[in-house]
Amino acid sequence: MSNSMDDVAQKAEAFFVIGSNTTEQHPVFGTMLRRAVRFRGAKLIVADPRRIDLCDFATLHLRHKPGADIALLNGLMYILLDKGWEDKDFIAERTEGFDEFKATIMEYPPTLVSEITGVPINQLYEAAEIMAASKPMAVIWAMGITQHITGVRNVMTLANLQMLLGNMGVPGGGVNPLRGQNNVQGACDMGGLPNVFPGYQPVTSLEAIAKFGTAWGLQVEGSKVEIENAEANLQPATFQLSNRVGMTATEIIPGVLEGKTHALYILGEDPVMSDPDTHHVRDCLEKVDFLVLQEIFPSETAAYADVLLPGVSFAEKTGTFTNTERRVQMVRQAVEPPGDAKPDWWITAEIARRILAGTPGLPSLNGPFAGWDYPDTSAIMGEINALTPSYGGITHARLEAGERLQWPCPTSEHGGTPVLHVGKFARGLGKFTPIDHIPPAEEPSDDYPMVMSTGRVLYHWHGGQMTRRAKGLMQVYGEALIEINPEDGARLGLNGQTRVRVTSRRGSIEAQAWVTDRVPPGMVYANFHFPEASANELTQAILDPVAKIPEYKVTAVKVELTN
Amino acid sequence: MPINITLNGKKIEAQPGQTILEVARGHDVRIPTLCYHKDLSPTGNCRMCVVDVKGSRFLQAACVTQVSDGMEIETDSPKAVASRKLTLGLMLANHSPSCVTCDISGECELQDLAYEYQVDAPVWGMKGTRYPVDSDPNPFVRVDFNKCILCRRCVAACAEIQARDVWGVAKRGFEEIIVAGAGATMLEARCESCGQCVAYCPTGALSNKLSYGQGIARARQVTRVATTCAYCGVGCQFDLLVKHGKVISVASNPDAPVNGMALCVKGRYGYDYIHHPDRLKKPRVRRYLLEYKEKRLKGNAWDWIETDWDTALDLTAKKLREARDNFGPDSVGVLTSAKCLNEENYLMNKLARQVIGTNNIDHCARL
Question: Could you tell me what percent of chain A has a pLDDT over 90?
C-alpha cells in the first residue's frame, strides 16, 4: 500500500474498491471502511462481478464482467477527460506520457465500454462524478485485480486513474493493494522472489551482486568478468551468485516435467491446494527427484514429500511479520513447540550449514555475513539491517521498546514512512502508460458456457490447513460451497440442498450449491479450502506474461446436477 | 475559549463540549463507570458514573453531561456514593449469583465495583435463572443473559466497531433484554462472529465458548503474550492467553497499532490448530531413503519413518547438494513462505543464493 490503512480510513473522501472482498479477506480493514462510510459519510464505489457484502455499504456497485477491468477503468477515465475533471496541475507537474495515454483512453467511449463490461452507461457517469467530486479517493484492490493474464496491466491502469485524479502522494489517497498472507509483504521484502535480493535490489545488478557476494563471503573481488560470463559455464558448486533471474513458483513446479527442476525445498506452502491446475501439480510433484517439505501439518503436498520436517506455528517462535502497509511488527513465542518440532529459521540454518560442510573443496567463506550461526532471530535481523536499506533501522530492540515502524526506515534514528510518493515518485515523474483491454484467456464456449471465479471465504484460510483444524470455523463453514445465481439454479433444476458438478477443460469437482444472487447469472464462485472440492482442480496455469500470476478469476466451466 | 469549573473543590480549566468524565479523567480524578467505554458512544444508562453537580436537582451521569462555565462538581459526595451502591444492589439483585464458577470472574467490571463499594446481592434478589444459559448456537460466543446488566456495550460495539448491527434491545422495564436481530440466533442475524461484543462485555453475559471453563480471567494462572496474527496481511495484534503451556484463548489488546480491540473470526477464534493432534512432532523420511533404494512412490518404500533431526537434515542436505552438483544450481527450486517470519524468509533467500547459487526462489504471493 502506498498509504496506511488508518490513513485512508480516516482521510479518504471516497474509496474505490475493485477486486477486493475486503470484509471477508481483510475483515478488520473491511470494518474500517464500513465505519468510514457510516460515520464519516465517505463515498464508496465497489467494482466487482459479485455482490459482495461490502456492496451493502456502497454508494454505487459497478457489476462488471470478469476480466473487463481495463475496459471499465479506461471508460471511467474517458468520462473524466471528456468532462475536463482530470487534475491538470498534478498531470503537468508530476507525470509524463500523458498525451499518448490520452489518445488510447479516447478509444473507450461509454457506449463501447458499457458493451464490453455490462455496466450501464448512467452508472459509468455516476462513478466518474463521484471520483471527480470526492478527493482524495483511495483505490483499494486485491487478487480480483491481479489474478488475470492482464494482472500487471490492471494495476498500471489503476495507477493511471490515480495520477489522472491527482490522488497520489496525498493522505487518504494512493494505490493500495491489500496483501493476502500475514507476511507476504515481508517474504517479498526479504528477497523471497526470483528477481531481487532483499530490499528489491535486482539480482542482475553488478552492484547488488558485489554487495551480497562480499557480505556472504563469495569470490567477487575483481571477478566482474567471471560474473558476466556465468551464464556460459554452468558449473557445479559454482560459488558465486547467479545473475540470471530465477523462475517463479508458477514456473518452478511445472519445470519438473520440463526437466528443469530436480529438487524442491518447500517451506510452509501447499502447492497442491494453492496452485492452478491441481492435476498437473500432482503430476510434477510425483516426478521430482527430491522434495523436502517443512510444515506444521501433513498437508496435501506432504503426500509427495520425500522428507517432512516439523516446523512451528507463529505461537512458538519470535521474530517479525510485515503487514500490507509495510508495518513491521513483533511475533512473540508464547508456547513451546510440540514434540521435536523446531523453529523454521533453525531448520533452514542447519540445512545450509550441512550443505556447505558436505561440499568438497569448498574454500572457507570469508565475509561479515558468510556464516550460519544465529543464536536467535534478533541476530538475523541484524544481518537484514546491514544489507537491506529499507529495513536499515528496524531492530527487534526498537520494536520491543514500542516504536511503530513502517519501511522505508533506513537508519536507527528514522521514524518510518507511513505514506509513499509524497512530493515525488520513486522514479521521478509518474509515467502514464497507455493500456488496452484484452479479453480473458478462456472465455465461455458452447461446451463450457459459464465463468468460474475463485477465492476465499471469511471462515477459511487459503489451502485450509489451519482453518480446517479449527473446530468453530468448521461448524460455521464445514464444506466447500459453489455460489450460483438463482436464474442458473432454476435452469438447472436446483431445488433446496443440491450438489452440483463443475467441470472445466482440466478437471471436475462436486460440491453443495449455494443459490445466491451474490454471483450474477452465468457465473459461479468456488473456493480452494477443501481438498475434496478444490477450485484449483479446474483452474488453468495460464499466466500474466510479466508477473507470472495465474488467471484464477476467469475459468470457463459447465455446471450440472449430480445424481 | 476554556471555561472554569470546580472539581472536588479544586478550580480547573476545561474545554467546552467536554464531558464531566473526560475532564475528571484528564485530572486523574476517578469516576467509576460500567456502560461507558472510551471506544464507544456513551449512552448514560447504567448510572454508575453519577456525580453531584451543585444546583442540579438530580445526580448527573458524568459520561454524557457536558461541563459548563462555573459548574461545581463533587464526584464522591455521600449522595453519589449512596446512589452507586443502590444501583449496584439492583444490578446484583438481577444477576446470576454464581461468581465462583463464572468464566470471567477476576476480569468482571461489575464484580470489581461491587467489591470496591462492598455491595452484596440483596437478600430479596434473584433466586434462579431467568433465561436459558448458553442460549445461542453460535460456536464462538457463549450467551448467558442472566449475567447481563443491559449496559448496551455489545449493541454499540457491533454497530460502531463492526458496523454489523447484530445486537439490539427488545422490550421494556423488567422484561428488557438484548436480542440478536429481531429475536433470531446470532448467525441468522448475520453475525460475523468477530467477538467484538464479547471483548466489550463488562460481565460474563457474553463470553468465549471455545475457552469456556479454562479460567481465562484468572490472572495468576494465565500468561498473556502480545503477538501478531498469522492469518491475513492486515497485521492485527492480540494477546495469546497461555495456561499450562497451552494457548487457551485469544484476547484483544487495546494497544494494538492497527486494530485496537477489533479482531475477526479467524484471528480471535481460529487458534485451536496450534495444539491440533495432527501437528508434526518428529522429522519423517520415506523408507527408501534410509534403505538406499531408488525412489519408489508405492508400497512400503514410500512409508514414513520417523527419525532424529541429524538423519533427516543430513539426508536433505545431501539430496539438495547432489541436485545442485549434478544438474546445476538452477535445478533446485526453493519455495519460501508468506506465513513465516521475515528472518526466516531472509535465510531462505540466503540459502537459495549463497548456498545453492540459484535465484529460483519464490513464494505464494501470486496465488
Answer: 87
Contact B257, A327 (CB under 8 A): yes
Per the DSSP assignment, residues forming a β-bridge with B204 are none
Give the domain ranges of chain B. 3-76, 127-275, 284-366
Residue A168 CA to residue A136 CA, distance in Å, equals 9
Q: Are strands B10-14 and B3-7 parallel, antiparallel or unpaired?
A: antiparallel
**Chain A within 8 Å of B175 (Cβ-Cβ)?**
no
Nearest CA to B239 out of B282, B271, B285 is that of B271
Do residues A561 and A300 touch, judged by C-beta distance below 8 A? no
Q: Which of A193, A198, A289 shows the shortest C-beta gap to B362?
A: A193
Architecture of domain A450-561: Beta Barrel (2.40)
Please tell me the distance from the alpha carbon of residue A187 to that of residue A214, in angstroms, as a whole number.
23
CB–CB contact B345 A183 (8 Å):
yes
Strand-pair partners of A514: A483
- Verify whether the Cβ–Cβ distance B316 to A292 is below 8 Å: yes
Contact B154, B206 (CB under 8 A): yes
What is the least distance, in Å, from the CA of A285 to any CA of chain B? 11
SS3 B342: helix
Q: Would the pTM count as exceeding 0.90?
A: yes
Q: What architecture is domain A184-252+311-406?
A: 3-Layer(aba) Sandwich (3.40)
A160, A432 in Cβ contact below 8 A? yes
Residues on chain A touching B367 (C-beta within 8 angstroms)? 249-250, 274-276, 549-550, 552
The predicted complex's ipTM stands at 0.94
Q: Is B339 on the interface with A (CB under 8 A)?
A: yes
**In this structure, which topology does domain A5-178 adopt according to CATH?**
Dimethylsulfoxide Reductase; domain 2 (3.40.228)
User: Which region, left, alpha or beta, applies to residue A510 given φ > 0 means left and ψ of -120 to 50 means alpha?
Assistant: beta
Cell of A59: 454508494
Give one DSSP letter per residue of B10-65, joined into a string.
EEEEE-TT-BHHHHHHHTT-----SS--TTS-----S-TTEEEETT-SS-EETTTP
Q: Which residues contact A116 (CB under 8 A, 6 or more apart)?
A: A65, A68, A71, A437
Interchain CB distance below 8 Å, A329 and B257: yes
pLDDT tens profile B217-253: 999 999 999 999 999 999 999 999 999 999 999 999 9
Instruction: Check: CB of residue A412 under 8 Å from CB of residue A343.
Output: no
Q: How many helices (H) and strands (E) does chain A have?
A: 21, 21
C-alpha A104/C-alpha A87 separation (Å) is 18
Model confidence at A309: pLDDT above 80: yes
Instruction: List chain B residues with pLDDT less than 50.
Output: none
SS3 label, residue B315? helix
The answer as to CATH 3.30.70.20 being correct for domain B127-275 is: yes
Chain B: residue whose CA lies nearest to A37: B163
